[in-house]
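seq:
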Amino acid sequence: VELFHKAGYPAVRVRTDFDPLTSFDRRSKKVRFTLTVDARRKLDVYFEGYDQNSIKEKDLHDQLTFDKAASSDDVEANESAKALTAYLQAKGYFDARVTFSRERFEPYDRITFRIEAGKVRDVQRVSFVGNRALDEDALREVIGTRESRFRARLFGDSTRATSAQLAADVDAVVSLYKREGYRDARVRVEAAPSVDGLGSAALTAALLGADRASNLFVRFSISEGPPTMLSEVHIAIGDAGETITDVSGQTLCAQVLADIAELLVEPQFARAPNQRLCTASATNLKFKEALALDSRDQLKDRMFSHGRPRAKVTLETRVIGPNRVAAYYLLTDVQPLTVGKVVIRGNFRTTDATIRKLLDVHEGDLLTKDALAEGARRLRNSGLFDAVNVAMPDLENVSEGSVNAVVEIAERYDYWAQLDLEFGGSTYNGLFVAVNPAFKNLFGRGISLDLKGTIGLKYYEALQGNLELKQLSAETTLRFPQWLTKGWSPVEFQTELTGFHRRQDTPRFGVITTDGVTLSLLRSWQWQRVGRKPAHAITIGPHYDFRLRERPVDVLRPVGADDDQTQVPISTRTGSVGFSFEWEHRNDRRGILSPLAPEAGFRLEAQIALASNYLGGQDTFLKASAAGTKYWPIGESLVIRADARYDQGFPLGGAVLLPEVERYFAGGDSTVRGYEDDRLATEIIQVGVPPLGNVSQIRILPSGGNIRVMSSLDAQLRIWKLFATGVFVDAGLITNQWNTVTQDDIRPSAGIALLRIATPFGAFAVERAIPLRPQLGDNPRGRFHVSFAARAQF
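struct:
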């Protein structure tokens, strides 16, 4: 058929006698069938009167409907003329007219389409008259015709005016008025080359004949008519209809009327004088069809929320007078039901008691939609299950009494333990290997225990065969989920206890040893994505931190047994209590939480902590910090990210500076790129070189400060699938007092991401950053930043 269409036979008929029962010749292993072709008359199509520079003949052929209809008669020729007219109007030729003529020859027919395109007309203005109930913004939202503006043409948001589009716009405006309660609304559309020509066919024809105007003005004339009012509401309940027979029926009637009033945005209905009838009257309530239909569907959900899960609702609208209607709601199967036995399936490690505690639905409770949904949400948010489903197989068969429930779950941790292995390299850890055994569901109650050990070696020494430690650490974290506190605490919270030992060679202090303990009481709320509202989570809670740090300091010794000892260890002990807040709103483009590969949303966090000698420390100070990240997706491939962070410490008890190990530092991969690690603020030390008295050496060391401010602006462009590139600008400030800050203290940098690979399980990036305000010790040519993180689970 396609071959004959290309050859000019639109009405071709092709049939086959193929039959699976008889066409297979199994002896010769062939399939025998016959194609019968009835080519019918050939058709030649010509176009006249169009500008070949602006309109392509191939595009005109693509609009013809002969092949699709498999017909070439005059009816289909007329349809093709309409399609050509619509195409020309879509290209801006609103005045286009297309006619056709047929010439019959012995072997074929020839159809010639004569095109009168006219001038290209852009929609200069779209206006509305007669609209009082709805403003222009609401009307413009539903129509497809758009005014031609430079920005609209640039971004492809300009819609050419066509006859079909204007007719569709009229229907859309009428539908909008009906939804808003104006069932008798009438709409008429007019188009003319000038504003004066709107409403005047003679003037419009004169302007077209004179060919004086090149714009197009569109006007929608609206006759709203009076609004249709909802005057009465009738509630029929089962076989009793509108009659109320007992107290329970009266209670149900009042409940249903209150729900309908809320759904129809009516404060309340006036009950009829006859209290034995479940009817009410409404005053000054416009009848909106869409809202009424939604109320029918939502009323069924309300019945489920009131413990009547089998309720069915139908709605009938009756005209009771001029522009007055009555709504008749019929409710059936409204028997209240309770929860029966609750059966749990799919749990191999998690105890039934833990699942029932999270579900919080008990035998004999009123069966409501809200209770079931809230219980399922708590199970999902626990983090113990990959899937949760609460089913009621007998719901449709039970007319009264109780309904049994089946809770089906798929456990996330249906094993005794897991082992995570991490390996890689960073300026912070060196070449490192980390082993992390974890027990995620101890005793089947959601308690988790994470153990982690890390060994890091120095880069260059390891390459030369000298295995010199960069880091050696061990860490243990014990978590108790927040639902375990239910029953004895008015507020549910998660308890997290962390202890660690770390020995690390740092650019700030040399080899530093840290022992610490942290106790956190956290309360989390999680919201899943609902419709267009993305998922997000909020976590708050107090915490206690104890740190014991030991670092070496340079000393001068008198001649003696230990005169060759140039450093001695100094300990700093800190105990603090604080409060933290985190709002996690980093999502992917679907609105699902995705902190590892976000493309939209934001993240906010804030902390405040007080250190005191009464809390086990040596120094007294106050620390406060706030940080935020915001993502803007632009198009399909570009994501703009903005980061900002502010930290400040307030020394107390007469001190001027924070303890050295508590000061803020910056510079390097995760702060201000382009500068060496921790060297955003430095101090210069000049010392002599013994035994040469006239020679000195200069050492540039990180100094840190009481105040740190950092910001970053990053534009990431996805090139192909997981591969991306980007440009960024960073800036940072380290100081001790605001009144001493000058412009030179602000250290900016700029760079480009040569390659980024972003996946849900890890990321790889190669970036080059250049400091824009280098100082002594900084490389003005910049530095590379290479980061890689991957995760494997066994």
